[in-house]
């Protein structure tokens, strides 16, 4: 389901905009927030497709909130639209957050619906292309040259995690572990070029589809466990928010 968050501290304005959006498609999932803190809590625990943010929030700046959203890896290129009565902020908004557009108050129903409908169509088209690419990833292989001169083909979809050890990379798969000699983690990730294999630590990249549990070790580190696999990987604090967000994606969050 397509999800939109409305970050607007004026209850009446928020209600008007919500009604306009639902008249496009009643099945659009709309989250509402009246402050930055409430918005961030919703964003961290749900997947959002589009952000409609009032630039002039009472307790904080909508621009500051947008910058924080952009700092979340999966939302680097998401659709951010600003709600404003102040045109002088728009240039700054485009420069700071690379927002997609803006909506002037008071809202014009035809303009609002035309813009949002256009962006939803684009997003759905982009999502379909990504899904097609994901299916292709299941069939793609990488070839590793082992130390004894043997070449091994490994399906990308079967990689559970990759660990750097010295100058080599250990590629852990559902069929066993293979060592790629003289290969950096950065280079392996680039060669694989797969959206669901994500760096989790300076020495680890993991396949989000095989994660079954994440357990905190200390302030900076967590352990990542995988389905039906005894070995574990590390999760560093710099990558934690992104990995946990990916782990929660498309799952029902109970608490």
UniProtKB/TrEMBL annotation:
Domain of life per record: Bacteria
Residues bearing the modification 4-aspartylphosphate: 54
InterPro entries linked to this entry: CheY-like_superfamily, LytR-like, LytTR_DNA-bd_dom, Sig_transdc_resp-reg_receiver
Database matches in Pfam families: LytTR (PF04397), Response_reg (PF00072)
GO molecular function: DNA binding
Keyword Transmembrane: no
Domain Response regulatory: 3-120
Keywords on record: DNA-binding, Phosphoprotein
Function: May play the central regulatory role in sporulation. It may be an element of the effector pathway responsible for the activation of sporulation genes in response to nutritional stress. Spo0A may act in concert with spo0H (a sigma factor) to control the expression of some genes that are critical to the sporulation process.
Protein name, UniProt field: Stage 0 sporulation protein A homolog
Species of origin: Clostridium gelidum
